[in-house]
Amino acid sequence: MSKKNRSRKEDLSWAVRKDGRALWSINANPRSSVYGESLRRFSGVEYRRWDPSRSKLGAAIIRTKRNPALLLPLAGETILYLGAGHGTSISHLHDHLCGHDNHQGGRLVCVDLAPRCLRDLTHLADSRPGLIPVLGDARKFSAWGVLMPRKVKWLFQDVSQAGQVEIFIKAANRFLADDGIGLLSLKAASERWTGDDEAQVFANVEIALEQAGLTVEESIDLAGFEDNHMLFAVRKEENI
Ligand SMILES: C[S@@+](CC[C@H](N)C(=O)[O-])C[C@H]1O[C@@H](n2cnc3c(N)ncnc32)[C@H](O)[C@@H]1O
To answer: In this structure, is residue 46 part of a structural domain?
Structure first.
């Protein structure tokens, strides 16, 4: 194999591989696809294609200028995902965090306020142990925070509503462990209109995150996969 071909393939974890611009995860529920994605075997192991135009986490993994593995939690951890939707990104995260029959011992708590999303997530959880769907409002964690007795090292938020930054900062204060990674997917148009252009909206978000003690390690522009979206990767400084 030429050097060029070898360098295109990259294992991001035991379960996630990047092959050029294609992303794959080992299917934790073999022979079944979640959102119509294709299945393929590599060296006898079944993978699901992770579509970056359907998943902001997937888009960020393709687009990041740093090591893409830095955007994933460690397999086997407990993590919190706010704004789970119908489970597209969640399913790939589950492949990595838990694997088949949850042999990695992970726990993926996913919160969404739409009952139709919860229906799909509950169905997904039937065949994916370790996935814990919660019908709840990301802003009102007194109702469901009891499910998170310990702080987590990885927090993701993708809620399509105004006040995304404030919600994220509060969630990070409450649930993110020191030195933990937080990922905020932000849609400029969901924020209240202040007269600022999109670049200024994103710049203001970075300032708000830094002022809250969250170090912005990278702002990843998802344009082309999800227009008008930025994904902010932050690290929580100790003792905020
Ligand atoms: C863009 S979708 C999430 C897609 C998902 N992250 C994915 O990549 O597969 C945004 C979700 O946020 C949910 N949402 C909006 N406001 C919310 C809130 N306050 N608390 C929890 N979920 C919320 C919506 O119901 C919707 O399912």
So the answer is: no
